[in-house]
Amino acid sequence: MFVALRTTDRSRVTSLAAQWDCRLDALRELAASGQLVCPGCEQSLWLRTGVKRRRHFAHRQLADCPLAHQSPELLEVKAQLYQWLESKYRGSVQMDIPIGVPGLDKLVDLLVEPAPGRKFAYWTFDRQQRARDEILACQDLPGLHVHFIHTQSTLVQHSATDIILTASQRDFIGSSDYDAAVGFGGHLHFLNAADSKLHIFRGLWCLHAPNLYAWKALRGDLLSVALISPRTGEIVFPEDVASRERRKQKLQQENTARAAALPPPPPQREEVVILDDGVAGASEPVEAAVTAEEPAASSLNLKGPFRCEDCGIETMDWSSATPSAGTCVCRICTTRRHRQKRDGPAVGRE
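Above: the chain's sequence. Below: its structure in token form.
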């Protein structure tokens, strides 16, 4: 693990933080004197340093603690994400920290708070997650944007055009404007700890139920090249930004053309009145008693994209839609509604 609690003041100590690069002896003394404990189980820790692995903390005794059983691959992925996020939000990144909601003590692998009332949460996975309802429930918390990163070892390539997803990976498929830009479907992120290369599968759709999925676009490059959405914290590539901008311009052009094709507004007529002095004059213009015809049915958008009534994202990946209102319920929110109906309201939901 990379985070410890200081017993004297309960402050958090991150072994990867740049402040310890020149104070390694002081950090080692804190651990040796028993002043650093695990944030998960409160047991004392040692500081481990070496050539092959990053400096980290380890339990002095084997403990039944989830933070004590993280694989080297997962730790390296978390470390790379921490340093990358720190380069974007210096001093605002926390590791292995409670989400901060009463009744929900789930630890977040990485948490960024770029502004008051807005947080980005990142979970990393190197295996199937069987108890995932608690993590998924965090998607409903106000002001929190949740993202999932899978290690490269969990990526199962079935062929050059499709992949096999586990049940938890299918549940963790996200949806955003960047997916709508490639057509429809959702996305998954995979980070390779060995070479820091990130792959983003966009426009995922089920090719053969339940686990064979194809994609519309595949982004791949070094994590250092990636960008971050300032609004949601989603990790994207420059190609995603360009694709979304092209779609935005196309929609604007279509809206302009649709507005130009509508019939002109009804003309106004002047009502002639006789003034008291017997001179004919014109009153203020009044609207003609003419009702504009409803737009032709062909101008109604029946295919989408529509804006989701729950999450507000414009998407093609919807389960039900109301074309006349331009709204829908996306696939992910439909699943969330079914889960809430089954389990009751999510913790912290307004």
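The helical segments are 24-32, 72-88, 133-137, 167-171, 177-180, 238-261, 331-343.
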